[in-house]
Specification:
The chain is an alpha/beta fold. It has helices spanning about 10-45, 60-70, 80-90, 155-170, 205-220, and strands spanning about 50-55, 95-105, 105-115, 115-120, 125-130, 135, 150, 175-180, 190, 195-200, 225-230, 240-245. It has five helices and twelve strands. The strands form two sheets. Strands 6-5-4-7-8-9-10-11-12 form a nine-stranded mixed sheet, with helices on one face.
Amino acid sequence: MARLRTRQPKPRDRLIPRLLVVMGLFLVIGLYVVRDWVVVCFERLTPVRYVRIEGPFDGIEPGQIEGALQKVLHASFLTVDLQQVETVVRGVPWVRSVKVSRVWPDTLAVELEELQPYARWGHDRLVAATGEVFDRPSSHLGFDSLVLLDGPLGREQEVIAMQQELEQRFAARGDHLVALTLSGRLAWTATLESGLEIRYGSQNPMAATDRLLSLLPKIAENRDQIMASVDLRYPRGLAISWKSLPPADSKGPKGKLQTEPKNG
């Protein structure tokens, strides 16, 4: 019967695998060190040298764009996170949308779309036709001619839609809406170009306006003063506050909703 011989591993055979493991570890560590060195050198050699801002804009202040970009332009031209740049720039007031792209070899192109003011909102803000509310720039004037709107947070589009409906009704009578407010209790108040203030309360302003416009001819028959305000909150009637026309004003108030008072 043959004998089985077992071969004892020599010390050299055990040393080789250990050396391979150690060499592998040094290689991995070396690759990480070299990688970091390469990234640092690459970023120094290929920085973002220029930022080109594109698109017409009036309310966006370039200094705000520059300040926002300084927070994210620390990487190189090829490693800068474009999505992060877009997110930061989108947070600048008046910016509606932004698209960032690379222009070889060292420029970022920032294409902006600006919010367009539709009306004033509250005391010191503006609102776009889409209902987005944004800050009114301190260095730009020319917004006082816009209609003044105001309302609770989240009701912007409702207020804009109501303003447009009411403007159509009053414009047909030669007057125009200059202010519309929805209070925290959801009560509507409108002011016309002629100076007339209309208090609707929580009822539907469009139906109440139709009722008021149908009554105006009868109201004008027997009046000798100009209406200062109309309170339509009464279910079966209305309350009118009157003001006298100044003697020196022969043309009456601006707007045609209120006619001239009768002489005598």
